[in-house]
Amino acid sequence: MTAPLTPPPPPRDQSSPHDAWQPPGDPDSPSDPGAGHPVHAVPQEASYGQDGPGIKTELIEAVVVTVASAVGGLLLGVLWWWLAPHVPLVGDVVDKSWVVYLKDSEGEQAVGVDGTFTLLAVAFGVVSALVVFLLRRRGGVPLVAALTLGGLLASFIAWRLGLWFGPTKDVLAHAKAVGKGVTFSAPLKLGAKGALLAWPVAALVVHLGLTALFGPRDPEPGYVQQGAGPTDGYGAPLA
């Protein structure tokens, strides 16, 4: 009798539909579909929230910020006229001529006038920068330029408005009107013209600081392997 013949096992290089799943081969092997392909960073898709609006929208926003700041200068001027200390003057007649002099030669009211304007301007600059940041949530050259130009324009308007609301500049006529030896207030005068820069500088510094701390960040790039087809959860290429 002869033994029954059994088919020989298949060679190792032939695949069988019943073979167990094998992990992907060596990445250096030519059969690996992802072999030899470099990995490159592919930035995520840009959206409106990342890149912001167009230049036309930014220019419109800049004009609105400038005009709003100028309107705020009216309020600053009224507050300066209302809160600034008064410099007392006294009129007298010497050799039949009227003279005007300070009632308190050692008083610091004149310094207080400049200080009041500076503190109010800084407060307005901080508030304007905070409001713009909360509404816009990002920076930009047009917006920063609008805050600076608008603050400077608002300071100039406030200065001139305070002078207009204050006592008359003709102190001799005022002294004659109130009488000899009667105390009256001197006209508002901004001795330190550098106070006009308080609003724009404060707005610029605060807005840049808020943008750096709480502004949107650039998106992290994603990584894909060029030339590789779709893979399953284990990294093996799908059929």
Describe this structure in words.
- The chain is elongated.
- The model is unreliable at 15-21, 29-37 and 39-51 (pLDDT under 50).
- A hairpin with a 2-residue loop joins strand 2 (88-94) and strand 3 (97-102).
- 46% of the residues lie in helices and 10% in strands.
- The strands form two sheets. The chain has a three-stranded antiparallel β-sheet with strand order 3-2-4, covered by helices on one side. Strands 1-5 form a two-stranded antiparallel sheet.
- The protein has a domain at 56-214.
- The protein is mainly alpha-helical.
Note the topology:
Layout lengths: L38 E4 L5 H4 L3 H29 L4 E7 L2 E6 L6 H28 L4 H25 L5 H8 L4 E3 L12 H17 L7 E4 L14
Antiparallel strand pairs: 1-5, 2-3, 2-4
Helix pairs in contact: 2-3, 2-4, 3-4, 3-6, 4-6
Question: What is the rounded distance between the termini?
Answer: 49 Å
What structural class should be given to the helix and strand makeup? mainly alpha
Number of strands: 5
Roughly what fraction of the amino acids lie in strands? 5-15%
Topology as a string of helices (H) and strands (E): EHHEEHHHEHE
In short:
Helix content is 46%, strand content 10%. It has helices at 48-51, 55-83, 109-136, 141-165, 171-178, 198-214, and strands spanning 39-42, 88-94, 97-102, 183-185, 222-225.
